[in-house]
Design a protein that fits this description.
It comes from Arabis nemorensis. The protein has about 160 residues and is mostly helical. It contains two helices and no strands. About 95% of the residues lie in helices and about 0% in strands.
């Protein structure tokens, strides 16, 4: 407990020393200001204050202009990038449309070739059917003739 009391005393003593030193510094500063102080007329002081305020305003406005210039540069860059992407998309779209036209034309050509082949196959099928009928007719004639020959041979042998 005595250690705590002793510690508190040291802290208070240090705080008082700091306050005393700050008071001494303040006195020195006050003396310096009195020696170096320049007194001006109210009008001159008002103009100087106005100039100082305008200077601060100009500095703030310059910073704002710089910020806006950076934002403008970023917007210009973004717009250029967007235009580039748009041109790329348009180019891709034209290529896709061209490819679609090629595929459509190829399909139309394939359809025409398919129709020609179908007509050719129908023509061949008709020829096959016609020849098949001719073969059946010839077979019937052969059977008929072959049957008469057999009859004639049977009657002569019998």
């Amino acid at each position: 407990m005595e250690e705590q009391i002793g510690g508190n005393d040291d802290r208070w003593k240090g705080s008082i020393d700091n306050i005393t030193e700050m008071a001494s510094n303040l006195d020195s500063l006050q003396k310096l200001l009195l020696k170096k102080a320049v007194f001006v007329e109210e009008d001159t002081f008002a103009r100087a204050s106005l100039v100082s305020e305008q200077s601060r305003t100009i500095k703030v406005l310059e910073q704002r202009v710089q910020t806006l210039e950076r934002e403008l540069d970023a917007a210009i860059t973004a717009a250029a990038h967007a235009r580039s992407e748009k041109r790329h998309a348009e180019s891709s779209q034209k290529a896709a449309e061209s490819r679609a036209q090629e595929v459509t034309k190829e399909l139309e050509n394939t359809t025409k070739v398919f129709k020609l082949h179908m007509e050719e196959l129908r023509g061949m099928q008709e020829q096959i059917l016609k020849r098949d009928n001719e073969i059946k007719l010839l077979e019937a004639i052969i059977q008929t003739l072959g049957g008469k020959e057999r009859l004639g041979k049977s009657g002569a042998n019998g």
